């Protein structure tokens, strides 16, 4: 199993995610028995694991490298966010918040929500130390608070500031601890790879395959702005402006599982979302599955073409 996961780009996350999807769709209640089992193998444990990964990532960031990390990741995420907001505004102007073909505006905005976990898995395979260090910053576009803020730029949604603050605390604490004790930072660093399969499993356990397949056509349509607008723009920016190889841009392309939570978070304040919550969740599920599988494949082909060797 380990050899298989290492052969597949992002396989340490993707393979367990697929196994969990299949298992939990055949036996939907098998893991929901409470206690440690439910906390370890269902979505209930994902936030804790992401927090730990943010802490480890922060601990292994040298304070001197922070400006470089912010320059690269901050600018790339800004490009992704600006494109997402502009596409959403244009979509709303043309079709309203209800959208067209059963695709509400929130679904379009949700394509900006990245998979921070897959970003980490792919940069561990192909990226530089600077790319890996950007994991915690990449998590900002995997943060529901940030996504709600971006969506609210074209609607009346409100931002929960504490959601953003709580997502940054593990990073900041890890940054402080790791720079005060370099030996401790080195000690916990290997845990990143160890946690990836568990995190992938918790993501997969929350995805209903049948519901996702029902929205497959809309899901495919939603991938078009990702792979034909956002990704090319980020690669162009990264290679021409930042002068790096484009791996980070590909790693930021997949839609994160956190997108599945957006309809539930917004349905109380947005009547359009409330009316389409079930369909939106299914569309987000398909997007998560499809982009999580396609993005590593595209990155692998890109790296072969560019002569970028796998580092892990």
TrEMBL record:
Query: Domain of life here?
Result: Bacteria
Give a yes or no for keyword Cell membrane in this entry: yes
Q: Which Pfam families match?
A: KdgT
Q: Which UniProt keywords apply?
A: Cell membrane, Membrane, Sugar transport, Symport, Transmembrane, Transmembrane helix, Transport
Residue ranges spanning the membrane: these are: 12-33, 45-63, 75-94, 100-120, 132-153, 159-180, 187-210, 216-235, 247-266, 278-299
Q: Which GO terms describe its cellular component?
A: membrane
Q: What InterPro entries does UniProt report for this protein, alphabetically?
A: 2keto-3dGluconate_permease (IPR004684)
One GO molecular function term? 2-keto-3-deoxygluconate:proton symporter activity
Note whether Membrane occurs among the keywords.
Answer: yes
State the family named in the UniProt similarity comment for this chain: Belongs to the KdgT transporter family.
Name by which UniProt lists this protein = 2-keto-3-deoxygluconate permease
Organism equals Anaerococcus hydrogenalis ACS-025-V-Sch4
């Amino acid at each position: 199993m380990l050899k298989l996961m290492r052969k597949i780009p992002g396989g340490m996350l993707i393979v367990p995610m697929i196994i969990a999807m299949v298992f939990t769709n055949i036996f939907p209640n098998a893991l929901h028995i409470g206690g440690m089992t439910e906390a370890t193998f269902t979505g209930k444990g994902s936030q804790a694991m992401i927090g730990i990964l943010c802490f480890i990532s922060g601990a292994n960031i040298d304070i001197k490298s922070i400006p470089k990390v912010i320059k690269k990741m901050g600018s790339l995420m800004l490009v992704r966010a600006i494109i997402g907001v502009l596409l959403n505004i244009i979509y709303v102007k043309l079709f309203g918040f209800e959208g067209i073909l059963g695709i509400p505006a929130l679904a379009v905005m949700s394509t900006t929500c990245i998979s921070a976990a897959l970003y980490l898995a792919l940069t561990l395979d192909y990226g530089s130390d600077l790319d890996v260090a950007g994991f915690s910053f990449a998590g900002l576009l995997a943060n529901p608070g940030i996504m709600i803020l971006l969506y609210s730029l074209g609607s009346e949604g409100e931002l929960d500031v504490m959601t953003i603050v709580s997502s940054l605390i593990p990073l900041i604490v890890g940054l402080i601890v790791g720079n005060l004790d370099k030996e401790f930072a080195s000690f916990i660093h290997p845990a990143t790879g160890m946690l990836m399969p568990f995190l992938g499993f918790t993501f997969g356990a929350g995805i209903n395959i049948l519901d996702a397949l029902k929205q497959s056509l809309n899901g495919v349509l939603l991938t078009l702005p990702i792979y034909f607008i956002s990704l090319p723009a980020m690669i162009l920016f990264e290679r021409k402006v930042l002068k790096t190889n484009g791996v980070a841009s590909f790693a930021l392309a997949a839609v994160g599982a956190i997108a599945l939570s957006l309809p539930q978070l917004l349905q109380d304040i947005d009547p359009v979302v409330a009316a389409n919550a079930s369909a939106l969740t299914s569309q987000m599920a398909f997007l998560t599955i499809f982009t999580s599988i396609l993005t590593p494949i595209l990155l692998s082909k890109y790296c072969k073409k560019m002569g970028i060797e796998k580092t892990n």
